[in-house]
Amino acid sequence: MVDYRPIPDERDVFHEYRSYAFQPEEGLPAYDSDEHETLRDTLGSRRGLYASEAADDADPRCVCRHYWLESHVRGDRHRTAGLASVSTPPEYRRRGHVRQLLARSLAEYRDRDVRFSVLWPFRYRFYRQYGWDTANRVRTHEFEPSLLSVATGETADGGRFRRLEADEYDRLESVYATHAERYGLALERDPDWWRARVFGGSDRDPFVYAYERDGDVAGYLVYTMAGEQGDRRMDVSELVFADREALLSLLAFCYRHESQVQRARFELPADVPIRDLVRDPDEIETTISDGPMVRIVDVAETLSALSYPDRDAGLTIAVEDPLVDWNDGTFALKVADGTATCERTDDGTDAADVRLEIGALSQLVVGTRSVRDLERTGRLEAGDSAAPDAFETLEALFPETDVYLGEFF
């Protein structure tokens, strides 16, 4: 019987496994606590899957890290676990260890009343087979910074830019809160997360500039520089703004790097209107890529804890979960007077109003995909004895929303 447990005293092993999985070209790394025990590296909880419960079994079959977070879903904050650094050395691969590690991780999340799990996959197909699915997509725009000259003519004169240090993160909290209210799965950030994950980088720290207006921060951007003189690119990983004027001011700030960089690249939510603002959108190279993945931890508990539109409704949902049995079955959801209850039933899947697997349900719940979209792509179907308005009821309870989790962990 394998044992799943913390690995607080084996950080060199964790570092070795993770390095081999994600940076094998660097060779076998020597572990140096002074080099690797930065604030960024100490965030989260390390876990390992061992062959037995023996205390002297110091050779985990695979490892991972859990970040204990909160994210915004349908107007409320919910406990969310970030899953990262899933690594297995080659001598233990193809034995089902990762599957067991993921199942044990979900069991721990459930014990901690965590509602959602999010991760950045090395391959989407791999994690989709275990019930995670795409949370949102990322739009990347790359172009010459001269295209942003249009922003300079529409900005106010009263604002100013100031580069901030990590200990000044609190200056950004107010405008970030406005941003987080716009997007499902946006994370709540504590001081350590601000310092280590926003102001800190894995190889080098980014620049963080705030746009101040009337003494308050109305927007900010986080960016790094890549390349060399004559072939340099400005990479903007986070662009947060309170209103249109702040957005234009941030873009004008980027334009003023025209003599320093040859290209600018932005990773943004879909609704940031870069292409609509410039005069030459055909000069922008825009690509769409899948972002992180999301998964409901416990169907009954999560659906009971959500906020719903002001509507009394009820339906039964048959869920298929390939990894954990507590989600595999039929659930009765009832919403009345602003309160929801969701309970497992003894009815078979044929008696359910709708049927879908856990990944599709997760996308529906957080707002990534609509009922009609899931139906068109074969991810959602009506039960054999479904109520005539089952899809309409489901759509009313789970309307599509803007979802964006852009920060990598």
Question: Mean pLDDT, as a whole number?
Answer: 91
First-residue to last-residue Cα separation: 31 Å
Strand segment tally:
19
Global geometry? globular
SS-based structural class? alpha+beta
Q: Which stretches are poorly predicted, pLDDT < 50 over at least 5 residues? A: none
Radius of gyration from the CA trace?
23 Å
Strand line-up of the largest beta sheet: 1-2-3-4-5-14-6
Total helical segments: 13
Short account of what is shown:
This protein is an alpha+beta fold. The protein is built from 13 helices and 19 strands. 25% of the residues lie in helices and 31% in strands.
Could you characterize the architecture of this molecule?
Residues 2-154 form the N-acetyltransferase domain. This is GNAT family N-acetyltransferase. InterPro entries: Acetyltransf_17, Acetyltransferase_Eis, Acyl_CoA_acyltransferase, Eis_dom, GNAT_dom, SCP2_sterol-bd_dom_sf. By secondary structure, the protein is an alpha+beta fold. Helices cover 25% and strands 31% of the residues. It has a seven-stranded mixed β-sheet. A seven-stranded mixed β-sheet has the order 8-9-10-11-12-7-13. A hairpin with a 2-residue loop joins strand 10 (216-228) and strand 11 (231-241). The chain is globular.
Topology of this protein?
Elements: E1 3-6, H1 11-22, H2 33-36, H3 39-42, E2 45-50, E3 62-73, E4 76-87, H4 97-111, E5 116-119, H5 124-128, E6 133-134, E7 137-143, E8 160-163, H6 173-182, H7 191-198, E9 207-213, E10 216-228, E11 231-241, H8 244-255, E12 263-268, H9 274-277, E13 285-290, E14 293-296, H10 299-305, E15 313-320, E16 329-336, E17 339-345, E18 354-357, H11 358-366, H12 371-376, E19 380-382, H13 390-397
Parallel strand pairs: 4-5, 11-12, 15-18
Antiparallel strand pairs: 1-2, 2-3, 3-4, 5-14, 6-14, 7-12, 7-13, 8-9, 9-10, 10-11, 15-16, 16-17, 18-19
Organism: Haloterrigena gelatinilytica
Domain N-acetyltransferase: 2-154
Pfam families: Acetyltransf_17, Acetyltransf_9, SCP2_2
